[in-house]
Amino acid sequence: MSELPIYTEQRLVEDLFKNYEPSVRPYFNRSEPVHTSFGVTLVNILELNHATETLDTYLLLRQSWHDVRLQWNMTQYAGVTDIKVHPARVWKPDIVSYDNVESDMNMQDSMVVAYFTGHLIWITPLRLRTTCRVDLRNFPFDEQTCSMYFASWVYNGHEVNLTLWGGQESTAFKLKSESMNKEWEIVSHGAKVRYQMYPCCKEPFPDLVVTLTLRRHPMYYVHVFIVPALLIGLLIPFHMLLPPDSCERMTLGSILLASLLLLILKLQDALPNAHSQLPAIGLFYTLSLVWACLAMLSSILVLNLHSRGPRRGKVPDTIRWIFLRSLKRLVCLGSDTYYPINDLETISMRGLDQPKTSLTPGSVSTDRRDLQQQQQQQQTCVGDLTRSAATTTAKLEREVEEISRQLHVMGVRAHVQDARADAVNEWRLVALVVDRILFFLFLFVYLMCAVIVLA
């Protein structure tokens, strides 16, 4: 009666592990190393943490080596070519990640496949968190290069020789998928074996270096961090076009300043608090904040010039020549050539015609006696009028003198008011010219900084 297949495999396992010690390195000659092929398959990129500078990945580790103690003649065991055994029962090359930040690699107990030739293959899934120095100078248009180091923890190069899986770089490090993360795009990847020498030992220590270059998808960060900063920064010079004495100007400047502070706080949440390199966008935020503060100070200066008036006297001739004659046209303020004149209606005084009377002969008859009486009355009236005229003339002279004095006072007062108004208007024009110069200066410097820093 033939043996059941399950008992055949059980007998094979019992025969193989009857005198097997998993802590002993398999070799024909002690001076010969165990050649171990090692490969990595990247399944998923879970996270690249800027604050902790760690890369969280999900991997498949592939290891292959030869164990002379696990060979059998398959004809003696009903043609069984391979068996699956628990990893704790066989010797392993003890390969670990040297830059793992976790206390344990937490390898799952996946089974080891042993073939009748003594060839063993062990493929185990692993979630690995390794260190990755990030360079945020070009955030969010940055590329990050992360490396993972795998080597035997206890064996040197004379005991375990680490080689690439399949003998090639393309087979030693493979990708499960090209697009495995929404934030990062894989630009390049590679693997190589290095031989390290340490002062403590004369033997070489081989390690496998897996390199991964990632490029960030910047669209989200452009909409959240760059576009608002550009728009807010562009409003800094343009808010200076508002009238200097308007309260809306200072209000808008304060709002822009507060908006920049909020953007800086949001950027601080997205990036590590302490980093050796300042991102270009962080530098741009700082420059915009300084620019907003300078714009507020310039608004205060312009408002002070605008409200100086006669308390500072008239504008000095040098300032008048520089700002009101030379620079005024250059900053597109033009010249004061328009003077509106209201149409005045003139009133012509026409002399009133004396009423004419016509006498007809014979309508009135007077005698000589009546004529004499009238002449006497006229002489009496002329005397009275002469005395009254002298009195009236003296009174009129006094009134004319008073009127002349009042007119002189009014003329002096009007001249003073006109001089004060001219001084106020000149200082306001100087303030407008200074304001326009600062507008062009702020706009030019802002655009230049934006191109240099963000390019």
Automatic annotation (TrEMBL):
Task: Indicate what this protein is called per its UniProt record.
Answer: Uncharacterized protein
Q: Which parts of the chain span the membrane according to its record?
A: 220-238, 250-268, 280-305, 437-454
Q: Which UniProt keywords apply?
A: Ion channel, Ion transport, Membrane, Transmembrane, Transmembrane helix, Transport
Where is each Neurotransmitter-gated ion-channel ligand-binding domain found?
9-218
Chief location = membrane
Origin species: Littorina saxatilis
Q: Name one GO cellular component term.
A: membrane
Q: Which family does it belong to?
A: Belongs to the ligand-gated ion channel (TC 1.A.9) family.
